[in-house]
């Protein structure tokens, strides 16, 4: 029987083409047919807070009301966190403070909300940061501490270093590529251990980053992001058709074995199952 626990990792600001070129650890599992990889087309506006809401609720911006990064308010939608909790399962997050604002309390208090343990909240266990340069190495250590101490069924991990470096140095700079490579190394430390612990793992991004250090618009560099899936519930493949970002929330619910939200799309199994099972000419 498949294990239903899942860790969802968002690499903020990681665009698709650089992910394919620089995420060698993740792409190794794709090459060896141990993980799936898909291109995802993000919703617009391709900005962080609106897309956190899209990723975690499966509801488009015009319905969820989180239009900009300056909408400091709690979500009014069913989220993966609330749905998991309502199913009697445990939730946790190591994430940027905007995630806490969306699903636990807004505005974020640096005095009270940095570390949270409250079974009544949607995110029952959380470690949240507010500095975009908070090291990914520390973030993943925070995540591992929550995983080992609280044994969550749904764990959300949200990394900011790629986005931070992209804004400072642009999305096709040495510095940006190096940030992607660094997080790939960190994933190589933690993901094998989490898989051994029985977790399914998915890795994606909210939006990309253009060659001017911006996002928010409709360029492919803004909207094309990666999705890697480690799960024995899906046959490993490389998707040949882009997947809508609104598909991720219902897919996560399916992998968790819980009911999806009322506003979430039906899963597009045709697109998910359309792809190469074997590599063409050894290329990934």
UniProtKB/TrEMBL annotation:
UniProt superkingdom: Bacteria
Single Gene Ontology MF annotation: hydrolase activity
InterPro entries assigned to the protein according to its UniProt record, in alphabetical order: Alkaline_phosphatase_core_sf, Phosphodiest/P_Trfase
Pfam family, one: Phosphodiest
Classification via Gene3D superfamilies: Alkaline Phosphatase, subunit A
Name of the protein described by the UniProt record: Nucleotide pyrophosphatase
Organism: Oceanobacillus zhaokaii
